[in-house]
């Protein structure tokens, strides 16, 4: 039985995830630095990530089409998330 990969978001001790600035599953494009833009294939997973992570010190999200949808079958996909931690 194979396991799906997970993405882990973690803040420093005592800090919490206060906003999710970007979340896309598909072919997000990494720009200069740590910013992302939507690629040609994307599923808007912002609500899924917010529900799993907001207000927590850390969270994990399973990366699979069952959890995040399949915006473009047959295309290799990745999950990109930008989160803000605050105390």
UniProtKB/TrEMBL annotation:
E.C. number(s) listed in UniProt: 3.2.1.23
GO molecular function: beta-galactosidase activity; carbohydrate binding
Pfam families: SUEL_Lectin (PF02140)
CDD domains found in the cross-reference section: Gal_Rha_Lectin_BGal (cd22842)
InterPro entries according to UniProt: Lectin_gal-bd_dom, Lectin_gal-bd_sf
Keyword annotations: Glycosidase, Hydrolase
Hydrolase in keyword set: yes
Residue ranges annotated for the SUEL-type lectin domain, each copy included: 1-86
Keyword Hydrolase: yes
Gene3D superfamilies membership: 2.60.120.740
Enzyme class: hydrolase
Protein name (Swiss-Prot/TrEMBL): Putative beta-galactosidase
Species in which this protein is naturally found: Rosa chinensis
């Amino acid at each position: 039985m194979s396991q799906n990969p997970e993405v882990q978001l973690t803040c420093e001790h005592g800090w919490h995830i206060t906003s999710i600035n970007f979340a896309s599953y598909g072919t997000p494009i990494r720009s200069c630095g740590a910013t992302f833009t939507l690629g040609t294939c994307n599923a808007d997973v912002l609500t899924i990530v917010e529900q799993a992570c907001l207000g927590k010190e850390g969270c994990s999200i399973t990366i699979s089409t069952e959890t995040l949808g399949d915006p473009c079958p047959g295309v290799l996909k990745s999950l990109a998330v930008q989160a803000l931690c605050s105390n």
